Amino acid sequence: MPYITTGQENSGPIEIYYEDHGSGTPVVLIHGFPLDCHSWEKQVPVLLEAGHRVVAYDRRGFGRSSRPATGYDYDTFAADLNILMERLDLREVVLVGFSMGTGEVTRYLGMYGSARVRKAVLLAPLQPYLVDEHGGIDPGVLTGIQKSIADDRFAYLKTFLDDFYNVDVLGGERISAEAWQASWNVAAAASAKATYDCVPTWGTDFRADLARFDVPLLVVQGDEDRILPIESTGRRLGEFVRNLRFEVVEGGPHNIGWTHPEQVNRALMEFVD
């Protein structure tokens, strides 16, 4: 199991777990909260079959990566990604982020530029700025989520994942009880502190980062996204990025990569190749 070291906390290294498969033009996949890199299982085989090198990793605090007590902010997340890109010497990369992972994509391009990146993909994006004055959420919502996590993290994850998949509408059709349970198991196994500390990052202002985008961008989002409503996020990105292709998945929930892989994979492959 490969790891890269991105820092040190007291007596132990901070290590990021990653998987690196295939050959060809590299595609780096960055997962959403509160899952891990294996949540891309409906995309990885398609990318490999198309002849791409696929790199996916677990964000610090999640999956098999280290669980430090600090570093849950997008500057640090982007720094972790940058170390991965440099250690593996990845070039001509397509960066693909889902949900919280769109923050790494956006902050990376804002901080480090596009010397190693040729295209970017945001699935169910956080951007441009979730708590701004133009239809964004009240910052108190994030505080309330943290309280729910502190009170009973496992109960909160149940509520979150129900909305993650729109289980009341799509349960049994596009998300099975077993797949939902698998997501809950992964989420419950994550660091409690990381789960709590990540929530304020959802309110990060990415507008300055978006202004630095100089690579083609694909945005795909469900129009029934209950976690990051499309009117406050995806539909606004055209105001900030010129070279943008925007695709809407009709009836799609937040995790369209699982529930609507046929549409997501088609859009992804048409854009990546």
UniProtKB/TrEMBL annotation:
Question: What InterPro entries has UniProt attached to this entry?
Answer: AB_hydrolase_1, AB_hydrolase_fold, AB_hydrolase_sf, Epox_hydrolase-like
Q: Where are the transmembrane segments?
A: none
Q: Which UniProt keywords apply?
A: Hydrolase, Oxidoreductase, Peroxidase
The entry's cellular-component GO terms read: membrane
Q: Gene3D superfamilies per the record?
A: alpha/beta hydrolase (3.40.50.1820)
Which residues does the UniProt record annotate as the domain AB hydrolase-1? 26-261
Q: Which domain of life is it from?
A: Bacteria
Molecular functions per Gene Ontology: hydrolase activity; peroxidase activity
Family per similarity comment? Belongs to the AB hydrolase superfamily. Bacterial non-heme haloperoxidase / perhydrolase family.
Put simply, this protein is called: Arylesterase
The species is: Nonomuraea cavernae
